[in-house]
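Annex B. Sample input.
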Amino acid sequence: MKTINWKTKILMAGFFGLFSVLIFAKAVFAASALYPICEPGTSCAFGEFIFADDGYTPIATDGFCQFTVTDPTDAVLVNGDNMSHKSDGWYYYNFSAPALEGVYRSKICCDTGSNRRCLDKTFVVGTSLAGLPAKIWSYSSRTLTSLGALAADIWNNAFAPNRTLTSRQIGADEYLAGVSTSTVVNQVASAAQAENLQTELDAVKSETDLIYGDTQSISSETDVLAAKWGSSSAADIINGLNSVQAKVGASTDATSSATIFGRIKYLQGSLPPSQSALLQEVYDLASSTLTAASETQAELGYHGTSTTAYADLRLVKSAINALAGNVGSPADSTSTDSLFGRIKQVRTSQQKVWTVYLSNVQQVLAGNTYRAKIWILNNESVPTDPYNVPLITLDDASRNIVAQNVAATRISAGIYEYTYNVAGTAMQGNWETQATTQVEPGKTIETSGYWEVQGSPAQVKINSITDNTVPSISANVIFTNEGLAGYEYQYEWCVVANQNNPCGGGDDTFYSSAAKYLDAGQNWTTDLSGTVPSGGTYYFKVVVYYGTEKSGASQVFSAIVPGASCGDGICGSGENCNNCSADCGYCAGGGGGGGSIATVPAPATNVPPAVTSTENSNLFADIWTAIKGILARLTGLETRADTLTAGISSLEDKFSDLNNRVVSLLKPAPPQIIQRQVIVRKPIATVPTPRAKVRLEVR
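Annex B, continued. Sample output.
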């Protein structure tokens, strides 16, 4: 089973990712934009795409990944449960959110042993924007219903016969309420874009939304107080202002306080310093609202519902309007100078953090198919379709463009594939793939990767060393083109004295190189020659190159000096225990001493040609010379006993030849048996001359 190369190859493609900027992190009152939100009582899916070390092959193995969840009280709710998986490498776990709201620490861990790695999957259980309207309407202090039948009257055709809110869109020459310029109001974005926007909003629960709700609430309460000024008592109005003050809070409120002051303080600690000036202005306007409300209450306490008190109430309303204007509304664009506009700038910048992965392909054999996969991940590491389909350009090893701006094929959301049939005659070497992905208007991400085209691999074999005589050396070799196309092979051969010494580098005994073109499947047999300066053990090596790869063969051999004859009883120049044990003895060595008897089988029954007495005389002289050579060698060290045995073996051959010649001088007779016994005795230390007894018996 393949394992994950967690350092480079894991793709953060989970349904819930992590934002890179902390904006809305708060434990109780609002879920952080840093973490995903899971509504209490709902089931939320957490997952990751897991691929093998090639960055392409999905891993789909039971029990490969586990999920762990710990609630805000440090109670472990899910303890290493195995995650379910799909065939495409998607591992997921469906978690049922409890009623307790807060930050839930969670993680996904995959693989085992030293390969095991974990990913942070912390999330928040709380109310998302989707559930915010229900909470607002269930809020105990809301006052919209105190306006009487206003809402019902709006929806009643008898009072508003021309309302068209549910029947048509805003026209090209119509403007929203409060828009006094001639700017044309564009139509609402497409359903797909609206759905994407809603998905973003569902993932973000901000303190600014709650500040907006509070400012709208106190504005409505102030409007009601002003509308009922003539019919309300001073005490009623003072109590109404108490509600306004409670929502505004106090300047000493902590960041966890559910007041405008507390939430502003939270934003001051969360937003970048570049937003501090606007936040301070919002803070000052909240202070002005609180001060105006207190002064109005004091006036009401002294003089009741006087004209001065009413003017003070209007000041409260003005301060609230200024506060609401600086807060803005969720509809504000990034160009609006409001708290919502500034935060949307940060969110927009944050959401522009895209990641594009191009699969890592190492090698492709000429004649096969190159395949690449592209993943486009948004800021939450979720595969997301870009603005335009990725375009692929291929450069061959010589930087020639072989494919340009070819659209990749969409497999699923955010995942694309590109294939290219590499010709059998394609140039070998490193090719480059360039993927151009326009993730959004005006923003393009370029990614690239290198891969190698290998073509026509070669097989090379040394059949035999055909000449090992100093100085000329030759070997018979065979090359085979195992590829699908013809190829011009560069090859080299050398003779070296060390097995670990490769060809080239200037330290070879002999070196040469050449080239040969072979068709697909063709075999080529040839003799490669070289030279060596002296006898000894060498290595003949051949290397064939194809692209950046190579094939090689090597064979050890012994170089022989000309004129030396193995078996002549003399360990001459160029002979050693490796190439002529008959003359030089065996490399294993060993002790000496003792005698031995060698028995030679009977000679053939056929009678050899007659020989002259001169030839017999020469033959005896040769035999005597060989015997003297053997006796001379017996005076050497005991370790040369093996050499003596080899000399005796040579002598036996000569005796056999002599026997045949002697028999030829005699009349034909039944088969003759010649027995010889050679007794070799170990030399006595004080008498260096050895003795050899030879008995020749002819029947």
